[in-house]
Structure formats: structure tokens, C-alpha cells
Design a protein that fits this description.
Helices cover 35% and strands 22% of the residues. With 214 residues, it is of the alpha+beta class.
């Protein structure tokens, strides 16, 4: 599926930093020992013996993996974008970074989501280093997410911190919750988009989506 095929208009649509806490969220975090005990319970529930040799260290390994997969909860998206550059030589056209690798975890089944993110913005006065855009994607993706919200959060963070004239974000990702369970459909990809500022206008939206497709 190409980006050009998605040109029809669509409406613009957590412990961490500038992101709001979910309703009823308790700030008390489980301990590492509690987390490892929970993994042992799941191993037992699955039908195996958490005390057998091959599984003895699994709870500790899983907790360490979770520290990487959910590292976004300890990162501030606003801080990532805070350092900008004004010496652009008068450049005021599209800035576009395509095919940023994306890995996240679906909050509904805690299954892997993987794909790419495309980010474009129209600078007003300042630009940000392109590595910061990739770091922003990682910070927001490495949380329990749904793709629709992740798309909007990336666009909102760029709009709030860079104050550009326009922002466009397109995510294309496959979901293991759909391929490894349930309907078990492989090869499908979910595409989500968010537009802010000038890119909410149909003509400007078409221009940026066509740029993404080249």
C-alpha cells in the first residue's frame, strides 16, 4: 500500500513526563521482585514449572526486557525536541524524515507492533536534529500504545515544541495481536495519519503525502 493511495481526507484525531496519567492511575510502581513473581505466575498458568532449570532465570530476563521495551515511560518527549537550530540559511520548505523504524507494544494484548514512521514538518524559524525525531518516535512507542494514539502524540509533541507551520505524521505497522492470534492474518499493515497546522488543508496535505511516496 502506497501513501498516495491514502489521500482521501480523514479527521485529525503513561507514567511519563508531559503525557497525562490514565484515569485512576496509581503512582506507586511495582517492585522488581513483584514483577518477577508475576512472571512466575504466568509461567505456571501457561502450564509449565517456573522452578525447572530452563525457566529459573526467565522472570529476571523478562523484567530486564520490559525495562527496554517500556523505556519510554522514563523519557520526556518535550525534552528530546528542546534543542533546536536557527541557522538554516533561510530554509523554509518541507523537512521530511521517512522510514523511521518503529517498535511498540499493543496495550490490548501486549503483543508487538512493528513498522515505520514518516514525519514531515514545515519549519517556522527553527529546525531540530533529525536524530531527535527518531528518538521522539522511540520514546513514545516504547510504552503501552495503540497506533492511533501514538500517531497523534508524535504530531502533537512536534507541534508543541517546534511550533512549525505544519506537521504530518504517517505510521505504517503490522500487529502481532492480529497475526499470531485471533484471525491470524499475516501481511496486513495498519496506516494512521495525523496532520496539524497548514497540513490540515487538503492541498497541502496532498503535497506532503506525495513527497512521502517518492
Amino acid at each position: 500500500m502506497t501513501v498516495r493511495s491514502l489521500l482521501s481526507p480523514v479527521p485529525a484525531s503513561e507514567e511519563a513526563c508531559s503525557c497525562p496519567r490514565p484515569p485512576g492511575f496509581s503512582p506507586q510502581r511495582a517492585t522488581r521482585a513483584e514483577a518477577e513473581a508475576a512472571i512466575r505466575t504466568l509461567i505456571s498458568w501457561a502450564g509449565d514449572d517456573p522452578a525447572r532449570e530452563g525457566l529459573l532465570e526467565t522472570p529476571a530476563r523478562v523484567v530486564r526486557a520490559y525495562e527496554e521495551w517500556f523505556a519510554g515511560y522514563s523519557q520526556d518527549p518535550a525534552a528530546i525536541l528542546r534543542r533546536t537550530f536557527g541557522e538554516t540559511g533561510g530554509y523554509d520548505e518541507l523537512v521530511l524524515l521517512r522510514d523511521i523504524p518503529l517498535e511498540s507494544v499493543c496495550e490490548h494484548h501486549m503483543a508487538v507492533t512493528s513498522g515505520v514512521a514518516h514525519i514531515a514538518y514545515l519549519p517556522r524559524e527553527r529546525v531540530v536534529g533529525i536524530s531527535k525525531l527518531a528518538r521522539l518516535v522511540d520514546a513514545l512507542a516504547h510504552r503501552l500504545q495503540i497506533q492511533e494514539r501514538l500517531t497523534a502524540e508524535i504530531a502533537d509533541a512536534i507541534e508543541a515544541e517546534l511550533e512549525p507551520r505544519g506537521v504530518a505524521v504517517v505510521l505504517q505497522a503490522s500487529h502481532a495481536c492480529m497475526s499470531s492470534r485471533g484471525v491470524r492474518k499475516h501481511g496486513s499493515a495498519l496506516v494512521t495519519r495525523a496532520f496539524r497546522g497548514l497540513y490540515t488543508a487538503p492541498g497541502a496535505r496532498r503535497e506532503v503525502l506525495e513527497a512521502l511516496d517518492h
